[in-house]
From TrEMBL:
EC numbers, comma separated: 3.1.2.20
Keywords: Hydrolase, Lipid metabolism
Natural source organism: Ancylobacter tetraedralis
Domain Acyl-CoA thioesterase 2 C-terminal intervals: 179-286
One biological process term in Gene Ontology: fatty acid catabolic process
Catalytic activity, reaction form: a fatty acyl-CoA + H2O = a fatty acid + CoA + H(+)
Span of domain Acyl-CoA thioesterase-like N-terminal HotDog: 27-109
Entry protein name: Acyl-CoA thioesterase 2
Family assignment from sequence similarity: Belongs to the C/M/P thioester hydrolase family.
Length: 297
């Protein structure tokens, strides 16, 4: 899947029955072609839940149970857990081959006034860059990266960043050595989206899973995309704080506070160009080193 129009079509689920929806897969699954991209399941499950409620989603918590099969559609069954005056709760189960592959709880909230504060961008990126965080127009696109930067990247990492996708990415300092497990990526939908807030939330959920787990390997000189690591998202949480547009530039500030026991925890703060914190993300993933056989027979 390489265009925003294809992503919008992917998120337009088929209604089969009350609380039951079917989602298709793109012709080629990202990035391993043997399983469905987790961000796709997140986004489609959110779309299914949103179809059953009139309030705005403000948080979701999900677990990836089994790898999705890209050769067959995914069924999404929504349970209407609670409908209150201010909040509603939904539980979505993604099903393939008669088995749950993914479960997600989503909370919805009716908009209302309240207290307001945020961690400023400068505090979130302290020590990561010298001077101001570069604006998206000052960060080269992936098609404009210098040849020497691309040559330093392992082939799987280079192929990942350069492949066509519906989300435009501008990583800051790609190819640089990281002494702390933190990095930043500007992203946005690669083409304008319709004026539907629920679609923008779904696209944000899709994009929030695209680069986050890589933060867990930054200081180890390896990558979740390489042959030396068995990687998979285990869970995913997303909190939406303020209105935003997913087709406007968003800065994803990512870090990893811990990795141990073949698992890594990654966090993300997502700011818009006005430096408003619009969302927060957390994910734990499997980052299991693949040990080669000793061959000592």
């Amino acid at each position: 899947m390489s265009t925003t129009a294809e992503l919008v079509q992917l998120l337009d689920l088929e209604t089969l029955e009350d609380n039951l929806f079917r989602g298709k897969n793109p012709p080629e699954s990202w990035p391993f072609r043997t399983r469905v991209f987790g961000g796709q399941v997140l986004a489609q499950a959110l779309v299914a839940a949103q179809r059953t409620v009139d309030l705005a989603a403000h948080s979701l918590h999900a677990y990836f149970l089994l790898a999705g099969d890209p050769s067959v559609p995914i069924l999404y069954e929504v349970e209407r857990v609670r409908d209150g005056r201010s909040f509603a709760t939904r539980r979505t189960v993604a099903i393939q081959h008669g088995r749950p592959i993914f479960i997600m709880s989503v909370s919805f909230h009716r908009e209302e006034p309240g207290l307001d504060h945020q961690i400023d961008l400068e505090a979130a990126v302290e020590g990561e860059v010298e001077g101001e965080v570069p604006a998206p127009q000052d960060v080269p696109g992936l098609d404009a990266l210098a040849a020497d930067v691309l040559e330093r990247l392992p082939a799987p990492v280079r192929d990942y960043w350069l492949r066509p996708r519906p989300i435009e990415l501008k990583p800051i300092g790609l190819g640089q050595t990281h002494s702390v497990p933190r990095r930043m990526v500007w992203f946005r939908a690669a083409a304008p989206l319709p004026d539907a807030p629920e679609l923008h939330r779904a696209v944000l959920a899709y994009a929030s899973d695209m680069t986050l787990l890589e933060a867990t390997t930054l200081v180890h000189g390896t990558s979740v995309l390489g042959a030396g690591i068995q990687a998979a998202s285990l869970d995913h949480a997303l909190w939406i704080h303020r209105p935003f547009r997913a087709d406007g530039w968003l800065l994803y500030v990512q870090d990893s506070p811990s990795a141990s026991g073949a698992r890594g925890l990654a966090r993300g703060l997502i700011y818009d160009e006005r430096r408003r914190l619009v969302a927060s993300v957390a994910q734990e993933g499997l980052i299991r080193p693949i040990r080669k056989a000793s061959g000592s027979e």
